[in-house]
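lol ok so funny story. i was supposed to be doing the assay writeup but got distracted and ended up predicting the structure for this chain instead. priorities right. anyway since i did it might as well share w the group, maybe its usefull for someone
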Amino acid sequence: MKSTNYRLGYRAERAAVKQLEEEGYTAARTAGSHSPFDVVAFRKSGARFIQVKSSRKFSNSIIDNAMKPLWEISREMPEGCSAELWVKVNRKPFMKYKIRGGLRLVKLE
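and the output, tada:
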């Protein structure tokens, strides 16, 4: 494996895929794609495009840095699709946010 940061991100993305599959989604990492989304999940009800962030310590800059590209893409998404930001700090459960109109985040859980 590469650097420690890479490993943290990889583990968080794998955890996100596993969680989504347990919820009935077909999910996959978009490794190496250089897209704004790390995980894509879908089922009959729609699709979720998720940016996964991982850190040992929470900081508002994690959210701030991820927001602009997600917001720009979310404006173009069709009905039934969502752009989301999932943040994993240490080994705690994900903090999940859905991007809504404007630069507004709505906490999912």
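The two ends are 32 Å apart (CA to CA). The helical segments are 4-22, 60-74.
back to the writeup now i swear
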